[in-house]
Amino acid sequence: MKNKFITFIHDLQNEICQALEQIDGKATFQEDVWERPGGGGGRTRVIADGNVFEKGGVNISVVDGDLPPVMAEQFGVENTQFMACGISLVIHPINPFVPTVHANFRYFELYDQNGELKDSWFGGGADLTPYYLEEKDGSHFHRAFKDACDPFGSELYPMYKKKCDEYFVNKHRNNEARGIGGIFYDYLRPDGEKNAEELLAFSKANGNAFLKAYLPLVEKNKNVVYDESHRNWQAYRRGRYVEFNLIHDRGTLFGLKTGGRIESIFMSLPPIARWEYDFHPVSGSPESQLLEWLKPRDWINV
Q: Which residues are catalytic, by number?
């Protein structure tokens, strides 16, 4: 199973990078292949200063070795080996009318002292962080992942959409959402209802839905005229993005606790962000409308 998932994320990284380079038309991804001292490694690809994308990364990693004590305590195990593989991406466009996007698809295995598999699970999801938004664009993003989920069960999209709404929030900001969500799932274990092959197929369906969900929004909005005020609002909202990633994001915390590669972990941060004291957008403005879109809502039936 791990070999199948590793092949999937390698292929997906190539497909996504090629598509993003094509739509940018200027910048290309720079590749950095690295090794982890404790075992395994990864392939980081970063794009910057393009026609469309200000900064972005599409990373894959396959790491293994002794489970760090802090994670062993969390999982309630001792003397355990682990393997974690996944693809993680964050794209920050230049134009404030093009949303920032994040996606992550991963697979995890735990082994006993004899190297026998004792536990495994899948996780992943994708979410959209706009700065200005038309309602139909938000609906398009959500529908792409609903279409990916529905063949595996009509109950899955609503359930994982709710988990996304609950996860990507800045709890220290009165539960203000980071963006308009998407789907988020974790700890999907093979069991009597769904085996590992079915869970792999589900992860692949959602991974393959990413470009369908995001590229039309880029193409539609990349040439919208903007000014300094739009960029300032973008930078202000990016500040909220930074706060979430540094305080609440599980992937960031896992990477730091397991001796992860700092450059890859912090790849998700935007190149420019700002904070203003007690700032509130003007009532009735497009900026204030965005704050209304951030509240959990039905994006399918709009």
A: 102
Q: Is 42 left (phi over 0), alpha (psi -120 to 50) or beta?
A: beta
Residues 6+ apart with CB under 8 A from 162: 296
Burial class (CB in 10 A: 0-12, 13-18, 19+), 121: middle
The answer for residues whose C-beta is within 8 angstroms of residue 181's C-beta and 6 or more apart is 127, 128, 142, 161, 164, 165, 168, 296, 299
pTM of the predicted model as reported, rounded to 2 decimal places: 0.94
Query: pLDDT tens for residues 139-178?
Result: 999 999 999 999 999 999 999 999 999 999 999 999 999 9
DSSP H helix total and E strand total for the chain: 9, 9
Average pLDDT along the chain: 94
* Nearest partner of 232 among 128, 132, 90, judged by Cα: 132
pLDDT of residue 234: 98
Number of residues that make up the chain:
302
